[in-house]
Amino acid sequence: MQTATRPPVRVGRANRMGRAIRSPRARRLRLGLLFISPWIVGYCVFYLYPFLASLYYSFTRFTGIGNPVFTGLANYSGLLHDSMFHTAVFNTFYYTIIEVPFSTATALGLALLLNMKVRGQAVYRTLFYIPSIVPVVASSLIFVWIFQPSFGIVNALLSDVHITGPAWFFSITWSKPTFILLGLWGLGQPMVIYLAALQGVPKEMYEVAALEGASAWSRLRRITIPMISPVILFNVILSLVLSIQYFTQAQVIENPPGSPGTSTMFYVTYYYQQAFQDLHLGYASAMAFLMFVGVLIVTVVLLRTSSRWVYYENENR
Amino acid sequence: MQTVPTQAPAAQAPPSPPPRPKKRRTPRAIGASASKHTVLLALSVMFALPLVWMVGTSFKTAQQALQLPVVWWPQPLEWRNYPDLFAALPYFRFFLNTFLYAGITIVGVCVSSSLVAYGFSRLRWPGRDAVFYVMLMTLILPFVCTLIPLFVMYKRFGWIGSYLPLEVPTFFGSSVFSTFLLRQFFMTIPHSYSEAARIDGANEFYIYSRIILPLAKPAMAAVILFQFVYCWNDYLGPLVYISNQNSYPLSLGLALILGDYTTNWAWVMAGATAATAPIVILFFLTQRTFIQGITLTGTKG
Fold first, then answer.
1. What is the C-alpha separation between B104 and B166, in angstroms, rounded?
2. To bridge B154 with a disulfide, which of A2, A55, A263, B159 should be the other Cys (CB 3.0-4.6 Å)?
3. Chain-wide mean pLDDT for chain A?
């Protein structure tokens, strides 16, 4: 700060150059590291160390008290034979495989609809966005009430047309689809992102395409989707990673967690039970590491195959 | 972006050149516009209904809430649910806890994320982009992969039961999202500003605090908002670390009502409304900042 008021810059710089003999390069590196140093500390303490420690715990039996006891691959082979673990993997897979494509398509569809120069675009956008800022616990409560089996509005309306609605969150068959509906309600974030991306597509491209007589469908396929494909990729990866970690809504709504039956026993639900109720910290850590491997594989596969469908206008992003 | 198109919903339909009389709208264009609005309106209803239903139920008596056929909007409004609920559960306490949690982490995020973002955008140093990717990678690291060792560590520190495990990391750049948002914004500021200041002999911290930060007010506002919303929503963090009911944030407190949900749905919805209304009002007041913030992080991934 004082340097600003000190006119002869030369002196200061000459001094520093004298100490660090190696050019401005080393100085720039030092300065950069200095600015990001809070993150470096945070990364080591809150990410790197716990990640490695968790990996180590996964090879041990550990209850949180005393020292972890090394047991080799016992936890992993235990998971292999644990039918509840298989259920948790299946439920999470079920949720993810439906939720991600549906929410992506819906968010994109809404954005496309809003991008068609409709009057009152901002109003619609706000309406579609608001559910996504409703606190998770609140939206869970709202949906429990809406889908309440005997007095909920959905089943009341269904019975008006002489359909006996299912028990939704409390039905083994319907619980997961109901959670997917809850997820679809809150897709405002990706929608706004897609809309912004759509608005960034140069208008001239459409004009040229229109002159060439391209149909609306081929404009969508050949211009719109390619132009915003990097944004789609980014959002698909994020929503995949999030839905693999699906937990909060199920934890709030289902009592006991995982019910009815084991139909909402998601991966993290089971992890949480193992870690914080049964204190099988080593076992839970093995689950965590497997999840990491899973997320990594999914991400790498998506990024690798993305060169086929993602188009980068200028390669330096 | 905020500008609502004033005219010509039919712009895309005819392939013919520009000199097009504005008033003349073909029946086909009107039809297209009408069907667009029909679809949008139907969707709006679907998105808005749960909230309307929530507010409506919160003004019913316990009996009215269960009444069939459905009553959308009770006559007269039953206001008592709110004071009753606030008396039954320490709601003000929950609000206060949430505000404290949000306030402290906002300070942490603003200070650390802006510094880190500056280092990742306004400075050129060898290895910068590689390190930046390492930081982005932590976005896809599932939280369960670090949770247990962190819990053990915080237990050793004696932090369990307090908000420290949720607050301290934010002072060390744990909010990658905020850092990313600020970096994206910092990159849009012309480098000539910094160059000019450097020629005048300003050091880097001076440029950061006196030139870049003041220019980045809109981005900082977005970061503050997002952090606030994040804390307001956060259920998982407090669930793991907070056990004493007096320290509960709103999210955990709200989940408590579901425990006796069979007794009174109007109460449950009053609780949900009380937790939702502030954040929705906040959104309406700051919509612009919100949308710009999302756009900044989302489209340049």
1. 10
2. B159
3. 88
